[in-house]
Design a protein that fits this description.
Blueprint lengths: L1 E3 L11 H10 L5 H21 L6 E2 L7 H8 L12 H10 L1 E3 L2 E3 L4 E3 L6 E3 L2 E2 L10 H12 L5 E5 L1 H7 L1 E2 L10 H17 L4 E5 L9 H16 L5 E5 L9 H5 L5 E5 L6 H6 L9 E7 L9 H12 L7 E5 L21 H4 L5 H16 L4 H19 L6 H8 L12 H12 L16 H12 L4 H22 L16 H4 L2 E5 L6 E4 L2 E3 L3 E8 L5 H9 L6 E5 L1 H6 L9 H21 L4 E5 L14 H16 L7 E6 L8 H7 L3 E4 L10 H6 L4 E4 L12 H14 L18 H21 L1
Parallel strand pairs: 1-14, 2-8, 7-9, 8-10, 10-11, 11-12, 12-13, 13-14, 19-20, 20-21, 21-22, 22-23
Antiparallel strand pairs: 3-4, 5-6, 15-18, 16-17
Helix pairs in contact: 1-2, 7-8, 11-13, 13-14, 15-22, 17-18, 22-23, 23-24, 26-27
Bound molecules: glutamine and zinc ion (ZN).
Length: 764
């Protein structure tokens, strides 16, 4: 029996790699210095895994930016516009674009890695795409580890996943047609690393977790049959993760590979299907992904051992590996770095395991399965059992009042009093807004001064009073600015918020925060998701102070600003001891109470942001309906407690709406603001085809760029929107919050935005 890990986080325990890469970009350190730091990160990763008794350790799981981008380099899949560049300059230009020394190349696209919050670089394909092999990275890393006495298993992305995750950049072909061209390059790769003495190669094909067409399944068969005929000694590990093999199981189980990896965290039920499958073979090694690579809870050893026992009835120990469910890329580094404080107490800490702790879990499970008499392992087992038992009963987690409230929810709790058309009339009366009302999405520039002052408050260098006074000032300035520029529905600016989830998590019961729990989101960007460990409840108001202060400064309506339940859930580590839907409902109730408090405090407009609704969609379509049902319901619970003339807004960015428009409509927000400006209003099509009845603010100003849109540009976009939608339903607003912008461009852009709305009014 062997212990194995599919991949290890690579940003460095203290985000050293992130910082070094950013310094390299700023030309503060040389390429040599950067390479030295990245080698250190790799070395430490390997040694940590070795010290934790992991038998099969990965290499080539490291990356300076993204592993799909690395694969583009390995396969020579480099778009024409980068061909004149070399080395790291080319690499980072592909990732981020480059605009210097007369050069102006746009970056490759970036998109979400399955249902995670990690983003990968999207490979670009042309019709006459050529591939060529570059094994430098793989070979270098293999040799580095070998020098430490570690014979690694290199990890690569398989051809089908690589092709399917990419995009055709020309019409007239399908990227799967490139398979015949890409296979010889993979073949060369296999032969070359085989000649170095690589014993096992892990080939990741997580597309096996998706709904695949017949044609795609056949491509998988063809690929692995091809590989099995290559004359090499190395053995292939086929790794699928994030969901079941599902409909792809019949195909996958017959593939001529040596090791077959299962994600038993996301899909425990598939174990029985596999063990009883007519094609199940005792010759193949099963890699049992029992330790969760996507979450931060300690393993349940009892449960994992049950899975392992089941397999030992059918397979001898040589054919069983104990594994992480997927790469630890999605887990923070090391729980030991966290000193217990008010953010994360000792009680909560005993239920957590980050990457380093999970390594021990894997090797302990192996010992428990192979040498049941081992004393050390047994005492760890007992500790684990105790921790899991007290987690099940802990008062810290279980709040009867919250549970009762969730149980007692009825349909009327997710139902506004009247239907939209009636509410719309009442709101028109109460708010008395002009046609094409103007507003913003919530945040105004978070200047350096603001971030510094917040940092000072954290360090205790300024008092709460001084900080509050400072924020009050910023808020007032922003209210005055919005009045002057002539916006119709104002916002307070969100200056008091660090982050749209953290701000709420910090005030809700059931959340814990880490100091070093960083996870790579893309490139050098890392996030530190809150940990939802217990029943969620709201002890007291969270935003009323700032919103009502802002409202007290002006006669114009100020919009209360909240983050929605699905987004809070989606951007946190979520407890695994109850369905996500239950946790989501708990958050929804907390937000509902906040909405009511805002209403009572005189706020007539309240926005509940749900930018993450779409990214929560399950990988397989058959699971979509269930998810959308509870997600929409949670939003409605949060938003339905108000009077008819209180106007509920929601905001969603980076979304395709086509396949979920029905659910968006079911959310029944009075106004939805969306991101459309970069797509030239294309994203509106879904709303148009559906005849979306409620009011809608298609973003007319791309806040992702410092560029100031002209009045004419904005008006053109609004004209387009009017061609598509009833003009009485159209709002005028930017794409998203302005927190990443600077004041000068924000001012000019909003001036133009207001002017364009006025001009539209005159035209009607
Ligand atoms: N209200 C938030 C803001 O303006 C919305 C952010 C988002 O959509 N990501 O910053
Ligand atoms: Zn947004």
């Amino acid at each position: 029996m062997k212990s194995t890990v599919l991949g290890y986080p690579r940003i460095g325990a203290q985000r050293e790699l992130k910082k070094s890469i950013e310094n390299f970009w700023k030309e503060k350190i040389s390429e040599e210095e950067l390479f030295k730091i990245s080698k250190d990160v790799r070395t430490r990763n390997w040694i940590i895994q070795k010290e934790a008794d992991i038998d099969m350790i990965s290499s080539n799981d490291f990356s300076h930016y993204d592993h799909i981008l690395d694969m583009c380099i390995t396969l020579g899949c480099i778009p024409e516009r980068f061909k004149n560049l070399k080395g790291l300059q080319q690499y980072f230009a592909m990732a981020r674009g480059q605009q210097k020394e007369g050069l102006d190349v746009t970056a490759m696209e970036m998109t979400k890695w399955f249902d995670s919050n990690y983003h990968y670089i999207v490979p670009e394909f042309v019709k006459h795409q050529e591939f060529s092999l570059n094994t430098k990275k793989i070979v270098t890393e293999w040799k580095e580890a070998l020098a430490l006495g570690i014979k690694t298993k290199p990890v690569i992305v398989g051809p089908i996943t690589f092709l399917l995750l990419g995009k055709e950049k020309e019409k007239g072909f399908n990227r799967l047609e490139l398979l015949d061209k890409i296979l010889p390059v993979y073949e060369k790769l296999l032969k070359e690393i085989d000649s170095f003495g690589v014993e096992y190669l892990q080939i990741d094909e997580p597309v096996l977790s998706l709904d695949l067409s017949k044609q795609e399944q056949l491509a998988i068969v063809k690929t692995y049959q091809h590989f099995s005929k290559i004359n090499v000694r190395l053995k292939i590990i086929l790794a699928n993760y994030f969901d079941c093999y599902g409909d792809n199981l019949d195909v996958a189980i017959n593939l001529p590979v040596d090791v077959f990896h299962l994600d038993l965290v996301r899909c425990p039920l598939q174990l029985d299907d596999i063990l009883s499958h007519p094609s199940f073979s005792t010759e193949k090694i099963l890699s049992l992904g029992v330790v969760d690579g996507r979450n931060i809870w300690i393993n349940d050893f009892e449960r994992s051992l049950k899975y392992i026992e089941k397999v030992t009835e059918k397979l001898d120990n040589q054919h069983i590996w104990i594994a992480s469910s997927c790469s630890f890329l999605h887990c923070p580094y090391d729980l030991d770095l966290e000193n217990t404080n008010k953010k994360i107490g000792l009680d909560v800490k005993q239920w957590l395991a980050f990457s380093k702790q999970k390594l021990r879990e894997i090797s302990t499970l192996k010992v428990l399965a192979t040498t049941p008499g081992n004393e050390d392992a047994n005492s760890i087992f007992n500790e684990n059992k105790k921790a899991n038992q007290n987690r099940r009963k802990s008062e810290l987690i279980h709040n009867t009042l919250v549970k009762e409230r969730i149980d007692k929810l009825t349909n009327s709790d997710s139902q506004r009093i009247s239907q939209f058309s009636d509410r719309q009339l009442l709101q028109k009366e109460t708010l008395d807004l002009p046609l094409f009302p103007t507003t913003t999405i919530g945040s105004f520039p978070q200047t350096k001064k603001i971030r510094q002052t917040r940092a000072k408050l954290k360090k205790g260098e300024v008092t709460q009073e001084v900080y509050d006074e400072f924020i009050r000032n910023e808020t007032e300035v922003t209210i005055r600015f919005q009045e002057e520029v002539g916006l119709d529905v104002l916002v307070h600016g969100e200056f008091e918020r660090n982050d749209m989830v953290e701000y709420f998590g910090e005030q809700l019961e059931g959340f814990a925060f880490t100091q070093y729990g960083w996870v790579q989101s893309y490139g050098t960007r890392c996030v530190k998701p809150p940990i939802i460990y217990g029943d969620v409840s709201r002890e007291k108001e969270m935003t009323v102070k700032w919103s009502s202060y802002a409202q007290s400064l002006t006669k114009k309506p100020v919009k209360g600003m909240l983050t929605g339940p699905v987004t809070i859930l989606q951007w946190s580590f979520v407890r695994d001891d109850q369905p996500r839907s239950v946790t989501c409902n708990q958050i929804a109730c907390a937000i509902r109470d906040e909405v009511k408090d805002l209403e009572n405090a005189g706020l007539k407009v309240i926005q509940i942001d749900e930018p993450a609704i779409r990214e929560g969609l399950p990988l397989r379509k058959e699971d979509w309906k269930n998810y959308l049902n509870w997600a929409v319901k949670a939003f409605r619970i949060s938003s339905s407690g108000v009077k008819d003339d209180t106007q509920i807004h929601t905001h969603m960015c980076y979304s395709e709406f086509n396949d979920i428009i029905e659910s968006i409509a079911e959310m029944d927000a009075d106004v939805i603001t969306i991101e459309t400006s970069r797509s030239e209003m294309e994203l509106l099509d879904a709303f148009v085809d559906f005849k979306y009845p409620n009011e809608i603010g298609p973003g007319v100003y791309d806040i992702h760029s410092p560029r100031v849109p002209t009045q004419k540009e904005i008006e053109n976009l609004l004209d387009k929107a009017c061609d598509l939608l009833p003009y009485e339903n159209i709002w005028v607003n930017p794409d998203c919050g302005l927190k990443t912008r600077d004041w000068p461009e924000t001012k000019s852009a909003l001036e133009n935005l207001v002017k364009s709305a006025r001009s539209m009014r005159e035209k009607m």
